[in-house]
Amino acid sequence: MPQPEHNPGTDTETMTSSLKYLVFRPILLGLAGLSLCLAAPALALETFDFESPYLVQSGQQVWDFSLIEDGGQYHVFYHTIPQQAANPAYADTIWHATSPDLRHWNMQGAALTVGPDWYDSVAMWAPDVVYDEASGRWAMLYTGVTTGMVQRPCLAWSDDLNTWTKSLANPVFEPDSLTYHWAPTQAWSSFRDPFVYHDGAQWNMLSTAGLRLGGYPGYRRGIVHRATSADLVNWVDAGVFYEHDGSSGKTRDLESVQYLVRDGWHHLFFVEQNLDIDNHPTNHMVATDPSGWTMANTTVVDAGWAPEIRRFDAGADADIFARLAKDQDPRDGSWFVTVKFDSIRFENGGQTPVVIVGDGLADDWPVRLGASGMAAPAFGENAELRGDVALGIEGHGWFSSLENYGGPLAGLGAPGAELGTAATGRLESRAFTVSGGHLRLLLGGGYYPETCYIALLDDFTGVELARTSPTSPTRMSEQFWDLGPWLGQTVRLAIVDNEEGPNGWIAVDGIEERLGGLAGVGENTPRGVPIDGLEVWPNPFNPRTVIRFEMARAGAYRVDVFDLAGRRVWRSAPGVMSSGGEVRVAWDGRDQNGRALASGAFLGRVMVDEVAVGQVRLMLLK
Hints:
Layout: E1 34-35, E2 44-48, E3 54-55, E4 60-70, E5 73-82, E6 93-99, E7 106-113, E8 123-132, E9 137-146, E10 150-158, E11 165-166, E12 191-198, E13 203-213, E14 219-229, E15 235-243, E16 254-262, E17 265-272, E18 282-287, E19 299-302, E20 305-310, E21 319-328, E22 335-347, E23 352-356, E24 367-369, H1 370-374, E25 378-379, H2 382-385, E26 397-400, E27 403-405, E28 413-418, E29 425-428, E30 432-433, E31 438-445, E32 452-458, E33 464-468, E34 477-482, E35 490-497, E36 506-514, E37 531-537, E38 545-551, E39 555-563, E40 568-571, E41 575-577, E42 581-587, E43 600-608, E44 611-620
Antiparallel strand pairs: 1-34, 2-36, 3-22, 4-5, 5-6, 6-7, 8-9, 9-10, 10-11, 12-13, 13-14, 14-15, 16-17, 17-18, 18-19, 20-21, 21-22, 22-23, 24-29, 25-26, 26-36, 27-28, 29-35, 30-35, 31-34, 31-36, 32-33, 32-35, 37-38, 38-42, 39-40, 39-41, 39-43, 43-44
């Protein structure tokens, strides 16, 4: 049997991912007096959030998908149905979403929609995206569905992963109705879920299909079908890749197949279609050759289904393991379906796949204590699922010492579940050096200033520098914390719930350190003037350096220099630009009183119209 090889769209032997590559590491800012007004747009430095590795589309079930990586960005193409829909048969759109880390997603919109031609006039399912070196384009093989749920492989092309054009050759493969349990007039004619790979000589496409036995109409046997092509357009029937050999249920389809080879072991991942739509686990067979596969040796890898196993970095020690994960909305019994991303490692010399569920909070929140700390993060508007008011979270992950649901397949609680106010706990963030003017966050919960709060701690001594408490258990409010007093200081955040009384809980989301003080918060546009090209030369320096930047328009400016303890040591004379242009500010390494400073690192902050618009690190060496 052909062995898949690496290509940018369908990795097998060399496709890798470890969750150490899936960490979102933005930046933070300052704290002190709080304001409850809306913030003007601001540049985030450090960010501490609680997003976990899911792809969620609001109000939609996310179904069969394709995961690729291009230029350091992940792309997922998938089909959807409304959350309240009973089954995924009538999906009419293939969507496109991108992410730098499989946690934070940008919805790019529809990649393809049904019609107007006959071959996908009813539905379109299960895209698989690969890169074709020969043409220099991306290709998407997908299932086109016509009247009667007749299924055929179809093709679309893209130069940039954003704009897709359906092939004029569609459908690109049509099965023989005498060989396969498929016919244009036969209801639910299975030929779907293409998985495409290149074996070094040609393209291969594996599809969910049925073999026709005993003449026509005969009876059905579930198979994985294989077709081959030199150009992704013209496909040749290569026969049965695997035939269901189970002792019962041989008519069942083997859906969403993934074929790959690890250290000489041939793996087939699939979902065995059955009548129980609530139980479609990812199954797995392995042998030294595909001819040795047998359903008698099938194992269950994970409770999720429609798997994608991808390795994009040959140096990683595990693959990305993505699969569909769903839970039931307790309000109406409908399903919400998402894609969950973890890792999978092949142990026992490449023979045994082992799923590794990542700790999505470990990097930003290494300390988690108590029941509420261990139940973090909360997933979605969980309060809504039990009939309470939505708190107004951002994204799908957040922290609440009340909630007890970590998302589908998370193993934390259940939809709508809560810990209760008796649960207590504490989270502490990683350390960071304050370099911005203020901290923005969403905060909710009961008002217990002594027992429910978020605090800023000195990282070295653990001394509490400042704290604030929530004021509303019905809605998270946006708050701002002045960080100016601790500029250059290494600190960490602590979220604390030591309260068991009524509304004795705290909720936090959207923590961002931002440039600028609080003077501009609440205006529709930022105060201050944008700058470009901020640089220092020479740096390191002795005894003189020049801070240079470009102002976009007229404004008053100055430069402040701080030591790493946050103390201001020097301030330039104020200047005014009557129009935009270059500004040069010289500093001779002396303090405000003209005394020469010792060697060391300093922070230079550019102020325009009394708003911090940029910072640079200065190194004085003597």
